[in-house]
Amino acid sequence: MSEDELKKKLTDEEYYVTREKGTEAPFSGKFYDHHEKGIYTCICCGNELFSSKTKYESGSGWPSFYDTVKDNNNKSYVEEHSDSSHGMKRTEVTCYKCDAHLGHVFPDGPRPTGLRYCINSASLSFKAEK
Ligand SMILES: [Zn+2]
Asked: How far is the CA of 99 from the centre of ligand 1 (A)?
């Protein structure tokens, strides 16, 4: 999908977060307090990113996961990049299919991974489990 098509498909906030690496205000998104069973997908391309099974309450105001969806070869459907913007050393998380910015991953999550994927609701869509 081209940037123009994405601009039409997405809301202004979804475009700002996923294509311009924006961050939504905490406690503002549709998924931080969302507890249904299913799969969180990329708002841009539908790639399956996170499972409700690994979602947990981090108190940050953003949807938080301790792991990502992986394929049969244990390859994650998200990509991680080092990010030194805003004077901080962080690890950015993007969709591996379309490069949408999703959020960041921090090493202060719960077991078993010890990771906290801190993700913007605006970058996600949701497929409920049937
Ligand atoms: Zn994507």
From this structure: 6
CA 19 to chain centre: 13
Domains annotated on the chain, with CATH: 3-128 (2.170.150.20)
| Residues near ion ligand 1 (Cβ under 5 Å) | 42, 44-45, 47, 95, 97-98, 100
Q: How confident is the model at residue 1 (pLDDT cuts 50, 70, 90)?
A: confident
Q: pLDDT tens across 40-77, in order?
A: 999 999 999 999 999 999 999 999 999 999 999 999 99
| Token code pair at residue 33 | 């307090």
| Residues acting as catalytic residues | 118
Closest by Cα among 129, 125, 109 to 45:
125
Contact 93, 80 (CB under 8 A): yes
